[in-house]
User: Fold these one by one.
Assistant:
Number 1:
Amino acid sequence: MNVLCTSAGRRVALVRAFQAAVGPYGGRVIAADLSRASSASHVADTGVTVPRVTDPSYVERVVALCEEHHIGLVVPLIDPELPVLAAARDRLAAVGAVLVASGPETAAVSDSKRVATQFFERAGLGTARLVEPDAVRRGEVPLPVFLKPEDGSSSIGSRSIPSLSELEYWLPRTRRPLLFEELTGPEYTVDVYVGLDGQPRCAVPRRRLEVRAGEVSKGITEAHPAVMRDALRAAAALPDARGVLTFQCRVDTGGTPRFFELNARFGGGAPLSIAAGADFPRWLVEERLGRRPQIAEPAFRHGVLMLRYDDAVFLEDGHALLAP
């Protein structure tokens, strides 16, 4: 029962969680990355390099790795590889590897913030209203508004726009810009576990207390009933969701969650949910072995606080590692 984590990068905590999940079965975790200078690749049981996801040989390399290392689960960890590997799902299955990724409809919601907003509206959930620049210029939409790239990630290029002068400055400098009404209230990232059978099983809200470089650095689990209920509704409305989905929302003054984003993969803060008892890696391994995980109600402990810090992996002969 071996697991392949692709685009492992710095996801050391997640690799360790999968090692704990497969360890009782004698399994190993293989971490793949474009670069040999990937910290997660050196923490994993085996580190391997792969071409860039846009390279035509990328899928061939991943399939070959699955055969070579007897992979049971493939866990992609960045957005660009989700549709590429989803298209190769049958090829992976033919060598015994189950892909922990959603299908094309969920990927479409994850890929575009415009499509995500439309999806949340169709599902009858609160969301951030999309606004047109001219409506802001005419004073029909109050400032501030929020600007973000349609396909952005890690909050790169996302910013509050408090004035018309800033709107005119940043709009042409943002790739594929979208404007939204600015949401206020506490912000939550919600990890939703969807079984390999497509059934949403639990939701874990993590309140974001501090963010650094677009990723949560301080967070706390909160058993917020409305957030949990609506995140599960959102997951159930996706016809081809699989694995761990990461929703983002803010809760307004009336207590209504207003969703604005979906990442159809493990989020950077997922180790907090795992530490609080929602052991997604163990549940995925059990499902792959043909067992239905016993997920408690609630599935996590309320009030678990995460305080992230920098750590390092030290390697001898680094020049050889970095040589082309």
Number 2:
Amino acid sequence: MEQKISISAQLQSKGRVYLLPLIAILLSIASCAANNKNIKHVSLVGAGASFPAPLYERWLSDYNQQNPNVEINYQAIGSSAGVQQLIEGTVDFAASDVGITNEQAAQVKKGVMALPITAGSIVLAYNLTPVARQSSQLNLPTSLKLSRQVYVDIFLGKIMNWNHPRIAVANPGVNLPNLPIQVVHRTDGSGTTSVLTQHLSSISPEWKSKVGAGKAVAWQVGIGGRGNEGVTALIQQIPGAIGYVEYVYAKQNKLPVAALENKFGNYITPTPESVAQTLEAVKLPADNLIAFITDPTGAQSYPIVTYSWLLTYHQYPNRAKAQALKNFIDWALVEGQKSSLELGYIPLSKKVVVQVQSAAKKIAE
């Protein structure tokens, strides 16, 4: 399933000044407002990851209220397809949950920049609701605890029933249902899949040797859905299902998510605090702003977290497009971050915002 977002936005003739602690951010916004005066009607086309799509939808809607003159179209078609369209030059920007590889970047004739624009967690959402309604004696918690080896073995197809003893041992007092586990995974080339499988490879030698990591892997078990929205829909439809999605998709659809055992041995649910603690350990290099942490060590860190990157060309032959995109990026880094928590994403730290703003200035016209 493809999610299409098409919002019109126009740059106001009068700029707004946002009072923020960082002088760099203040000056950047003032500059953006001044540049708005020079832009008439511009159309921008982007495509890529479904991970940030709900946030992009909100951003483009909000941006529309302030700037009725720049038309921005974004299609959530998966990170792989988005990167490929950037390489082919058929879009003005792309989005990817794994940035872009050096090999892919070398194929982009106009050069490429990877800008972390938001962040969030990948969760294991499941569906035991119909079973729980049928039996009030199940006493299911809001978040079942899954140990590291248990959730690896679920995706390997080695644990096939919800009342398996190895699930029960981490959930004492819970009357687990005698129900088959149905794994749901992505069918498209997905940054979400890459982040999950990188994590599974880092904690399980067996997973690394049998399946490995990547945007598309040979799943040992389960059925596939397209995009985060497709996986979410299948989880909702299938009793006993479990699958991986970006947190906001589980939140919006009221799906329970598992508390996962982290490297420290604690069972952690994805909260703004636990995800932010993981992000604090991610050090973005100055040259390309792409970095991951596949198995965080913090005692309260949620284990599967990623930035999501906006990919732009280094140089645009169309000056108006370059300026319009730079203005939108700057708006997203400041005003846009304010809606992140509400939707289930994690706002970028001030340090990262400054890093990204500095990099975005290098987009050439």
